From TrEMBL:
Keyword Transmembrane helix: yes
Positions of the Prepilin type IV endopeptidase peptidase domain: 15-115
InterPro entries in alphabetical order: Prepilin_IV_endopep_pep
Enzyme class of the recorded protein, top EC level: hydrolase
Gene3D superfamilies linked: 1.20.120.1220
Protein name: Prepilin peptidase
Pfam families: Peptidase_A24 (PF01478)
Length: 166
């Protein structure tokens, strides 16, 4: 992985709990809350100054802009929810551009696992653990925050484990 293990170690304690919150709230309400997206952005803005060299820190804001524009286009086309687009944009600066191919693979695997687990739980007794979740009754819609949050959390944890030495 191209992410520095030290950067992942700085980001993970703040980002992973937020990712779990996004997974939970998206399953419960089918919405990624704006305060979670803003918190993710603030974490990058503050911790990124410590975790990354200044030039890399500043360049990664371009990641946010590119993903936000793509997310707006996908949202306009009905392919992605607005909260999903905002979360993906706020998550983009945490990703080292050299890990993009890995991230696509990781997202695909996480999406398949999240979708399968959600649909399985939806049709089993596990549903009784959280009977009021909106995602159980959302028809064909899927709480994409489960996959997006999961992907970012797994990426950072992998970065700690197999990221490049500082």
């Amino acid at each position: 992985m191209d992410i520095a293990a030290s950067a992942a170690l700085w980001f993970a304690p703040f980002v992973v709990p937020l990712c779990l919150y996004v997974c939970w709230t998206d399953m419960a309400t089918m919405r990624i809350r704006n305060h979670a997206v803003v918190a993710l952005f603030i974490i990058y803005a503050v911790v990124g100054l410590i975790a990354l060299p200044l030039d890399a820190y500043l360049w990664r804001y371009l990641h946010l802009a590119v993903v936000l524009v793509a997310g707006i286009a996908l949202n306009a086309g009905g392919a992605m929810g607005a909260g999903d687009a905002k979360f993906a944009a706020a998550a983009a600066p945490f990703i080292h551009i050299g890990d993009l191919r890995l991230l696509v693979f990781l997202f695909a695997a996480t999406l398949l696992a999240a979708f399968s687990a959600h649909r399985l739980a939806k049709h089993t007794a596990l549903r009784r653990l959280a009977p009021d979740w909106v995602s159980w009754k959302s028809g064909q819609r899927f709480p994409m925050g489960l996959a997006l949050g999961g992907t970012l959390a797994i990426y950072l944890l992998l970065g700690i484990w197999i990221g490049r030495p500082a």
